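Inputs:
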Amino acid sequence: MTDAAQPNRLPAGGAIQGLIDRDRLLAFTFDGKVYAGHAGDTLASALIAAGVKLIGRSFKYHRPRGIFSAGPEEPNALVELRTGARREPNTRATTIELYDGLEAASQNRWPSLAFDILAVNQIASPLFVGGFYYKTFMWPASFWEKVYEPLIRRAAGLGRASEYPDPDRYEKAYAFCDVLVIGSGPAGLAAALAAGRSGARVILCEDDARLGGRLLGERQTIDDAPAHLFAAAASDELGSLPDVCVMSRTQVFGAYDDGVYGALERVADHMTAPAAGVPRQRLWRIAAKRCVNAMGATERPIVFGGNDRPGVMLASAVRTYLNRFGVLPGRKPVVFTTNDDGWKTVADLAAAGAQVEAVVDPRASVDETLTKAAAAAGARVLLGGRIVDVAGDARGVTSAVVSAGGKRQVFAADLVAVSGGWNPQVALTTHRGGKPRWSEALSTFVPGDLPDGMAVTGAANGDFGLAESLRGGSAAGAAAAAACGFSATPAPQPRAEDEPAAVVPLWHVDGGRYKAFVDLQNDVTAGDIALAHAEGFRSIEHLKRYTTLGMATDQGKTSNLNGHAMMAALTGQAMSDVGTTLSRPPHQPVAIGAFAGHHRGRHFRPTRHVPGHAWAIENGAVMVEAGPWLRPQYFPRPGEKDWLASVVREVRTVRSSVGVCDVSTLGRIDIRGRDAATFLDRVYINTFSTLPVGKARYGVMLREDGFVMDDGTTSRFGDDHYVMSTTTANAAKVMQHLEFCHQALWPELDVAMVSVTEQWSQYAVAGPKARELLAQLYGSDVDLSNDALPYMGCREISLRGITTRLFRISFSGELAYELAAPARHGAAVLEDLMALCDTFGGCPYGTEAQSVMRIEKGHVAGNELNGQTVARDLGLGRMMSTKKDYIGRVMADRPALVAPDRPTLVGIRPVEKGRRLTAGAHILPGGAAAVAASDQGYVTSVAYSPALEGWIGLALVVNGPTRHGERVRAYDAVRNNDQDVTICAPVFVDPEGVRLRG
Amino acid sequence: MVDAALPLKVRGAFDGLLVPGGPKDAGIVVTERASLQIATVVARSRELAAVIEATYGIALPSGPKRVVARDVTFLGTGPRTWFAFRPGDRPLASDLGQALGEHAAIVDQSDGYGVLRIAGSRTRALLAKGVPIDLHPRAFAADGVAATVCSHIGIVLWRSDADSSFDIALFRSLCGSFWSWLSESAEEFGLRVAPADGSLRPAIGP
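Outputs:
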C-alpha cells in the first residue's frame, strides 16, 4: 500500500517495513503545509516519507539543503520547532520525535524556502570566503556596529528565538550509580546487562527514545533473529532489574571531575507541551563509580563537488531511514563508499525496491562477497572510482559524475549515499584533558587517555563489528561492576557476526565543477581550507576560528576530521601530529533553562522571611532585599508623594513619639562555657570579661589582617552565657569565624556557640514613648524604670508566660529597646506592639528610617564597615584594648594602618542649604582640580535629616578629625553632582546622648 | 486591641503554606512534624558520651548517625554537635540541661526549625531533584543523617524510623522557599499534605 500522502513510505508487509507504528497516524505541518507520519517517526523521516527534500537554506550562501543524517550529528536540516513562546530555532529534524500537531518551519530563507532572495550570496561568494568578517567589513570602523553587524546577522541567521518568556519548567536532579553506561547500541546493551545482572546499581543513558542504537538501523541478526528484537528483549530485562535505571531521551553531554557526568533528559520534547507538573527538560548530575562509554561512532562524509545538495546523504542514514523508519530516501541511488560497511547500503536499498545505479569505491579491489552482492542487486560496480560532482538544484540531486578508470561517467540519480568511514565519538573521553589517538588502520581518531573510571567499548572504541561490540560491551560491563564489588555471573554470548569493515582514507575529491563543502552547517568549502592555509592559519585551532569549521550546533561531528585531514595534506603533517581541536562540554546543545532549573525569577535563590513578614506585607510595607532576607524598607501612607516623604514621617514619629522596627534579621549567636568570656576577649577588640551579668556592650571584631570585620552588641545573661548580635550581612561569616577560632586556634577553651538567629524574632522599639509602650505590653508588675533596666541593660522577662529578652540598646539615638521573642510568637508580639504603638501615635519604621537615624547619630554600618577600614578610621580606636591580645591586633598596628593621614570618619553638610548630597562623591580640597591626585577621601553614607532639615553625610577624609569646619569639594562625576561641603563631627543629633539615657 | 489575658498566638513554621489535602494515590505525602521540641547539643567535655550513656543508655554517635534514647532522638550534625528532638510539649532543652550539666551546651531551637516528614512511593525521586547526596539504602543507612542542602537551602536530613520516608529540618525563615521547591517538584508525582502530627503550643521557658 503506497499512501498518496506518504509516497516514499515503504509498504507494510514488504521485505523492509521499518519499526514504526503504522496504526498510529500523526498529522504535522512544515512551513504551514499539512503532512502525515507515524508514531516512531522523526520529523526527518516523516518529511522523507512525504517526499519533502528541501528543508532549509544554508547559513552563509543560502544554498538549498536537505536531510543529511539520521541523528544528532545533522548539520543541515535545522528547523524552527513549535510556535509562539515555545518556538525553538535550530532544532535538528533528525532528532525531533514526531507528535500529533507538530509545527515546524524552515529557517534562514526569505521570502520563501523555494525562492530565497539571499541565494544571490552564492554569486557574491568570493566575498564570503573564510575570514570574510575580518576582511570585508573592516572599514570604516564606525560602520561595524551600526551597519555591517546588523546586516550580517540578518543575512546569516540560524533561526529566530521566540522573544517571549519561556513558558516551560526545567529541573535539575542528582543521580548516583555504580556503573553508568552511555549509549544503548550493542555494546552499551551488553555492558548494561552484564553490570545489571551482577546486582550493581546501573544507569543506562540513551539519547534516542528507543534503545538499540545501530541495531535499529541495520538488517543484522543476533541469535538468528533480527537485531532490533535483541534490543527490545534487553530493554525488557533491564527494566525488570530493580537497581537498573534506563534513561532514554537522555544525552550525556559532559564528563567532569571525580566520575561526575552531565546529562540532559528531554522529558517532554516529544509532546506538544509538557503535561501539568512535568518539566520540559531535566538536567542530571550523575555521579558514577565507573563509566562504560558506548556512545558509538558517527559516519563521516566525503568532500566532493555539489556534496551539499538535497539528496546527498550519509550511507548509514539511508539504511536507518529504510530499516528503522520504513521510508525510501531515493529511487535511483548511487552509493559512494571508501569502506566495506558502506556496501551494506546497496543491498538494503535494493531490498526496499530502489534501483541502485552504481556503487563507487576508490579501492582497486574489495572483498568478493561485496561485489557479488552489489551485482546481484543490479548495481554497476566502479572500483578505483570517485564521485567528482553531484548536479542538482533546490529539488534535489539529479545526477552524479563519477571518475573511474581514467574516464568520467554521468549517472542519473536522486540519492547519493556517502560513506568515508566511521569516527568514534571521542568527545566525552577528552573532557578531562585526554587526547585522542590517531589510528592508521581505521583512518580516524580513537580514544586516548581516558577520564578516571571510564572504559570505552564498541564502535566508540573503534571496534565496529557486531560480535566484537557485544563481546567487548559485556566484558566492559562486567569489569566495571567488578570494580564496584559485584561479580557478574558468566552468561552465554549472543550469536552474531563481525562483517567485513576494511576502509581506506579519502577526505576530498578534487577537480569538481561545483563547490565542495567540508562543513555543511557553516558553509566552509574545500577552497576555504586552502585559503586558510595560504594565509597562514594552519594550526587546526586557527583554522577553526578563521573559517568557523566545526562550530555551532553540530560541533563539527561530520566535518572536523575531513577539514583537519585536508589541512594536514596541505601542510604535509601526519594526522597524529595534527591532532584534534579541544572539545569542551556540552557535547550537544543544552538549553540555558535546564542549567537554571527551578532557580529562575523570584526563585533564583532562596528568600528568607522573618516571622513578621506577613504583617509587613498586610500593612503595605515596601520590601527591600538584605542579602537573602526581605525587610520592610518603609511603610508608605496615602498622600505621601514619594519614599522620602514616608521616611521623613517615620523618623519624625520615632524621634517625637515611638516606632517599631523589625530587626529579626540581625545575626544572633548563643555563646556558652566557662571560657566564654575569655573567648570573647580574644575575638573582640574591647573587653567582655568585665561585662556584668545583665548588661550589653557594643563590640568590634577584626579580621586577622587588622581590618574591621563586624560590629554589634553582645549581652551577658550568666557567668558563662553570652548572646552576641551581628550585622545581617555578616551573620554567617561571623559564625564561621568564631567556629574557626575555637576549633583551629583555641580548642582548649570550654566554649560552645550556636546560631539562634532563627529561634528568635526581635523588634526595636524606639522613641520617647518606648518605655511606656513596653510597660503596657508587659503589664504593671514588670519594672522597666531606669534603675531596673538602665541604658545597656538586658533581662529575661516573662510575657504572658513566654520568656522574652529585653535589651536596652539604641541604634536610633532615642530611648530604645530591642525585644526578642521566640519565633513562633514573633508575629503575635509584633501585632501587639503595633496595636499599642498606634495608641501612642507611633508607627512602624523600615530600614530607610533606621538608616537616616543611624547617620544622624554617626553610627557606622555596612557602607563604612566595607572591609577597607580599621577601627581608628571609624573613630573607634579608643575601643582597642591595650591590656589584652585579640585577633587582628598585631596586623592593625602596621605603619600604613596607623598613619595619621588615613581617611577617617567625619560628618559633612552642604554649604548650599537644601542641596542634595550623594554617596560615593570624592572629597577634594577646596578649589582643587577633579583629578585622582587631589583625592582626599569619599562620602560613604548620606541622608536627609528631618531634625536638621537638610542633607547630611558621613565621609572618610584624610586627617578628618582635625578638619572640622573646613570647606571642601564633594565631587561625584557619576551622578554629575559637584558642590562644596563643610566637614563636621559625625554626630548630628543629641551628641551628648541625653535622649537614649532618658 | 491587646488583651493581656489571652495567651500569645502561635504560628508554626509552615503556617499558611501547607494545606491538608491532595489525591489518595499521591506519590508524595508530606506531614509537618509540628510539635517537636528541638535543642542543639554541643559537647563541652570529653565525658559527655559517658554521661549520655549513663543517663539514656545509648552510645552517642560521633558521625552523621541517628540514635534514639527513650523518647529523645540525637542526630550527629557536626563535630561535637547534635541536633536533638522529642515529640510533645515537655521542654527538651531544660531537661537536657539538667541531665547533662556542664558537659554540654544546650540551646533551645524549637522555634528555629520547620520539620517535614516526606513519605510516599516517589520520595527518593523527589529528593533527587534537590538533595545532592545518594539516598539509596545501600549508601544511606537506616540510621543515616546528613547536614546537606536541598535546592540551595541548608537542611538536616535523616531517615525516619523503619520505613522509606525521610525527615527534613530546615531554618524557619526558609520554609517558604523550600515549600515552593517541594510543591513544584512533587507535582508530577501527585502531592498530598497530611494533617500535622500534633500542634504547636506556646513556648514554655527554656
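Remarks. Chain B has a mean pLDDT of 92. Chain B has four helices and eleven strands.
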